[in-house]
């Protein structure tokens, strides 16, 4: 081969390699799998391009974790499937982190994860920041309205709870019990609770509970905290308990994974001036925080539908307890509210579920009087249409009834105006479930 031709081929190959490694095909690894929110219904494909098959459609407003970005395509997992989606329709999530840290010295806040990056500001010692992600000894967070990085070596995990902290439940000590400054026996003792003392519990992590006794807050071992003997199992109700001279009925909506009909449903309820009860999976709150806040902003009741919608009547007591403690914590951390009503996923429960629910501060487990079947395509060979849903409610309505619907199906907001108008014509007024129990 001509030597000049060899040189030209070598140069062409070198240019191509530089283009591929540094150009459009460069792979960007995202620190700590950052969260993004879909800005439209978005295809999840088997590969990074429109020529690949669609594995699933991710609804608008869903929070997903992006592992890496390459050529404008993000690699992520949704509904158990790992694939690729266009970054054009993904925006960085603004969901607050639950990883507060305190600066242990005056700390430089930089534009990137390293000392070679310029300093944005100097953060005073003792400042609390919320860490969004952490990689290679550098933490990313927002300070002074700017997103930047600081060395993790000068950020200490704080044991101070947020101001919105609320009580999960109360416990009684089975022996004299130390309150410590942190969750472990190596932490200093800040107080002592006598045998039989009543303790407020804010959160539980592992074998340690964050508690308060006589104004002293700290940590105590859960082995010496018992359920008060006066605590009753959660009571199952299928209708309201409070009698009235008027006929009452409650509209309830369950949220598992999808969310697309939330705003249409809220708009219908606003039009008719009705407040409803929404039973939501706690992870749904975490993944759809804007929607959850909108439900509260419009004056509706937001209640617990478990952590991750499992079959709780098949679980161990420890697993059941985890569902309650973790879901309650998410309500508190993300929304600063403490739910007191529980709706069992699939309507399934047993004596253990009800006992633990009562211990965790849920006096009522709310079932329903009418299942609208809005979740189904067919029931016993009958197609579930908008007319079917409307007639099912109007033909089965009773005083203090509880109507079960969902926020995932277009038929629901379509049927809702006729349901409301039909019930009002029959003399019903609308209440939340909270207003129908003592």
Observed structural traits:
438 residues, alpha+beta, 5-stranded antiparallel β-sheet, 32 strands, globular
- Low-confidence stretches are 15-32, 159-164
Terminal Cα span: 93 Å
Helix content: 10-25%
What can be said about the biggest beta sheet?
A: 6 strands, parallel
Explain the layout of strands and helices.
Elements: H1 3-22, E1 27-38, E2 42-45, E3 54-58, E4 63-70, E5 73-78, E6 81-86, E7 90-92, E8 100-103, E9 107-110, E10 119-123, E11 128-135, E12 138-143, E13 146-151, E14 155-157, E15 169-173, E16 177-180, E17 189-193, E18 198-205, E19 208-213, E20 216-221, E21 225-226, E22 235-237, E23 247-255, H2 262-272, E24 277-280, H3 282-287, H4 289-297, E25 301-304, H5 317-335, E26 341-342, H6 351-359, E27 364-366, E28 370-371, E29 378-379, E30 382-383, H7 386-396, E31 401-406, H8 411-425, E32 428-430
Parallel strand pairs: 22-27, 23-24, 23-31, 23-32, 24-25, 26-27, 28-31
Antiparallel strand pairs: 1-4, 1-7, 2-3, 4-5, 5-6, 8-11, 8-14, 9-10, 11-12, 12-13, 15-18, 15-21, 16-17, 18-19, 19-20, 29-30
